[in-house]
Design a protein that fits this description.
alpha+beta; disordered N terminus; six-stranded mixed β-sheet; 3 domains; Pdz3 Domain; 19 strands; 2-enoyl-CoA Hydratase, Chain A, domain 1; 10 helices; 32% helix; six-stranded antiparallel β-sheet; 379 residues
């Protein structure tokens, strides 16, 4: 037990090291001693034996979840499995998730994945995974439960705003490969661009599609679809926004460290020469999507149409730990050219059009938001 408490003290020391010169040092150390006392009583008095290592992991994760829904602790096993995801291909459902009030919340279902085809929506709460209660588990533990062999089934119990009863969804896991750009001409003279994620080459793909349109089709206007786009790389959001702006600020980041305080500006020249642009957003548009939509709205370069975005306006850094695990920690927040923060607020559309239908399908004949955008460009 003494060794565990020693490790605990070191861990908490690292967590609070940035506050060592404050006037609250004495109180903080008293709290650490108090926590050690609680652990000792649990060891001696609790009705059942407890895995103290797992309990400390939960305490660390609880401290991180206290900060915001996106900070989390990753055990060595989870940290190692997470590294597979960064290679762009992994087995799963195709959803971006976060934590809210101890429950897993869907940030966005990725387009054309098992989750989106099953009708999972942004804002859904996952309360059970294969019959196991999610509440009380960490975000990373829940993510691990949702992974499994390709072709295997998973049962999700969903709570959705406006629905009295829980929804049951059975989904078959697949290899998730995100092709970030889809493009086509609608009604002969309107260019439709669907950006599904901000991957390492998203802006390059988008520019190539636009250049082909400008040479071959010469569209009168563009529709940029960012619905259910969970975000991705900040650099890609900046590059995409820059393509449409004449000049001006795109986004700024602010954090405690000087290195996190940055401002990003568009280079001279709107590559579309001011052609009409409509941006489609919904509750599943998050992070990098919100930067693009928010900047284009602030500069009055585009009409923003659809529903309010998710409100994930923060930057997370992955930090390895000495035990082979890691933490995901929020280090800065995004701010739009107007100075407004995206966090927990999102971007409001200029024209509010609510999605219609339980099985709402993007880019289909029943897509009422896209149809409305097309009507605006054909008037």
């Amino acid at each position: 037990m003494k060794n565990i408490l020693r490790i605990l003290n070191i861990s908490f020391f690292l967590l609070i090291s940035t506050n060592l010169h404050s006037n609250t040092d004495e109180n903080i150390y008293k709290k650490i001693d108090l926590f050690g006392e609680v652990l000792e009583k649990i060891k001696k008095e609790y009705v059942e034996d407890v895995d103290q290592s797992e309990m400390i992991d939960s305490a660390i994760n609880g401290a991180l979840q206290y900060l915001d829904p996106y900070s989390a602790y990753m055990s060595p096993e989870i940290f190692k499995s997470m590294e597979v995801d960064t290679k762009g291909e992994f087995g799963g459902l195709g959803i971006e998730v976060g934590m809210e009030a101890g429950v897993i919340k869907v940030i966005s279902p990725i387009d054309d994945t098992p989750a989106s085809r099953a009708g999972i929506k942004a804002g859904d709460y996952i309360i059970k995974i294969d019959g196991t209660q999610v509440q009380g588990k960490s975000l990373m533990e829940a993510v691990k439960l949702m992974r499994g062999p390709v072709g295997s089934k998973i049962d999700l119990t969903i709570r959705r705003k406006g629905e009295k009863k829980a929804l049951q969804k059975t989904i078959v896991r697949e290899i998730i490969q995100v092709k970030s750009v889809e493009a086509k001409i609608i009604k002969k003279d309107i260019a439709y661009l669907r950006l599904k994620a901000f991957n390492s080459n998203s802006s390059k793909q988008l520019v190539e599609k636009i250049n082909k349109f400008e040479i071959n089709d010469k569209p009168v206007g563009y529709i940029l679809d960012l619905r259910n786009n969970p975000g991705g790389l900040l650099t890609q959001a900046i590059n995409v926004t820059d393509f449409f702006l004449e000049d001006g600020e795109i986004v700024s980041t602010k954090g405690r460290r000087a290195i996190e305080n940055r401002r990003f500006f568009a280079r001279k020249g709107d590559k579309l020469n001011g052609k009409p642009l409509i941006v489609l957003i919904n509750n599943g548009s998050a992070s990098a999507s919100e930067i693009v939509a928010g900047a284009l709205k602030d500069h009055k370069r585009a009409i923003i149409l659809g529903e309010e975005t998710y409100g994930k306006g923060s930057v997370q850094s992955i930090m390895p730990l000495s035990d082979g695990g890691g933490i995901r920690l929020t280090v800065s927040k995004y701010y739009l050219p107007s100075g407004n923060s995206i966090s927990e607020v999102g971007v409001k559309p200029d024209i509010f059009i609510e999605e219609e239908g339980e099985k709402f399908l993007l880019n289909s004949p029943s897509d009422n938001q896209l149809n409305y955008a097309v009507s605006l460009l054909t008037i």
